[in-house]
Amino acid sequence: MARKTPLNELHHASGARMVDFGGWEMPLHYGSQVEEHHAVRRDAGLFDVSHMRVVDFHGAGARDLLRRVLANDVAKLSTRGKALYSCMLSEDGGVLDDLITYAFGDDFFRSIVNAATAEKDLAWLEAQRARFAPGVRIVPRTDLAIIAIQGPRARERFWAAHPELRAGTEALPPFHALLAGETMVARTGYTGEDGFEIALPAGESAAMWRSLVEAGARPCGLGARDTLRLEAGMNLYGQDMDERVSPLDAGLAWTVDLSGERDFVGRRALLAHHQRHEFLGLVLLDGGGVLRSHQKVHLDGAAGEVTSGTFSPTLGRSIALARLPRGARAGDTAEVEVRGKRLRARVVKPVFVRRGQSLVDPEEAR
Amino acid sequence: MKLPKDLRYTESHEWARRESDGTVAVGITDHAQEQLGDIVFVEAPQPGRKVKKGEAVGVVESVKAASDIYAPVSGTIAATNAGLSTAPEQVNADAFGAWMYRIKPDDPAELETLLDAAAYEKSASA
Questions:
Q1: d(CA A258, CA A73)
Q2: A301 in the same domain as A209
Q3: Is B34 a domain residue?
Q4: Do residue A172 and residue A271 come from a single domain?
Q5: Residues A228 and A342 in one domain
């Protein structure tokens, strides 16, 4: 039996096409994935991401525990509500999960982890806690739902529906969150657009969803979420990286803080192995298909692999994230095996669209 | 399920229609486009190619997945719908209008061996 979010009935009532995603019954789209995608780039879209798990860390040792289990350093979280993107690594340096952690005080941190990895993460975190920080309390918040509102008009539509939250969230800088009672409003997202992610008690989530739809935000499924995050050049766990992949080979070196002597899990493995691949973007030059994960890439006689591929609704052509041979650079031309044919693709920096604007040079991509 | 009664169907979700010039126009059903989601690419077989009934002759790609298109009858490819290469979303908008290719059938009677609307509906909802 697939698990259901508190908004499940609302999705069915809205005519969503539901699919299994990491053991959860989630909306794929509510009619047209491409129109939902455009709604987020041009106005505001609404996502149910309650399948993701909020995990709270309480206690005097919380900061030290997180400095040990995360590859990025929560010591950077100098102001209350500030957020940090990081990987959690295994001793071998593979990525156990990627997550965002918010600081709400020296003894209160909150992370949001992926749905499919949540149980595994919690077991691993519990083992680390027992060993290094027995005084810390780890609380999985299965009582919370998460709604994301994203797009150039997302914040104004949110405030139209919830004027009471305007004062507290208007001055919120990107990658910061406000905690108002049990409701968290974070200026974060997974689309490359402005907006908020809202974690709130499950029982209040349907009213929140309805109010945001009434304010003009369009419900969007996981299909649009995937094309949006790919255009924004954001990795998807399980596809662009997993336990067998080093963050250095998944374009995530910027999230690994090797400065100083901080002893985090996976540090030794990263120092011993170094980078083996370039993680870059591809834009399909030839017609004739769509880039998809696991397709083989050929570049100067060496092989690589598409890790995520799709058709980009904003660019009107196929794009991908790919693990390429060392030395591959933006501007190179690669060949991708698409259903038995070799199609040409331009290697680009892996951010295709941000804030509604294409970052791919139209001349370069011809 | 939206299913014109005057068309024939396959279990692999193609529809086939006899045209006035004796060729058979082929597309995918409304049910198929709905399953695939937004269609972004259609690859039809080259005119002149000989095809056998049940042979994979083309591909439809949506944002979600790639899916083969099969020949409903044996014959020779007579034409392709060039409009779909620039506007593949026509398949989503009007699945039964957006023909992908036409076959000159070896045996005109073969069309009658395909599923009718009622039989297809049963097969597709099984």
A1: 9
A2: no
A3: yes
A4: no
A5: no
How close does chain B come to A289, measured CA to CA in Å?
A: 6
Q: Do B40 and A290 touch (CB under 8 A)?
A: yes
Summarised one tens digit per residue, pLDDT across range A182-231 is 999 999 999 999 999 999 999 999 999 999 999 999 999 999 999 999 99
- The whole-model pTM stands at 0.93
Q: How many domains does chain A have?
A: 2
Domain that holds residue A24: 1-232
Which of B37, B41, B59 is the closest to A33 by Cβ?
B37
Out of A32, A223, A288, name the one closest to residue B64 (CB).
A223
A282 and A156 in a common domain: no
Complex ipTM: 0.81
Q: Is residue A209 part of a domain?
A: yes
* Residue B85 near chain A (CB below 8 Å): yes
- A289 and B41 within 8 Å at the Cβ level: the answer is yes
Find out whether A284 and B61 touch, Cβ atoms under 8 Å: no
Per DSSP, the residues of A118-139 read HHHHHHHHHHHHHHH-TT-EEE
| Structure-block tokens of residue B96 | 């039964």
- Chain A residue numbers touching B63 (CB-CB < 8 A): 33-34, 223, 227, 290, 310-311, 313
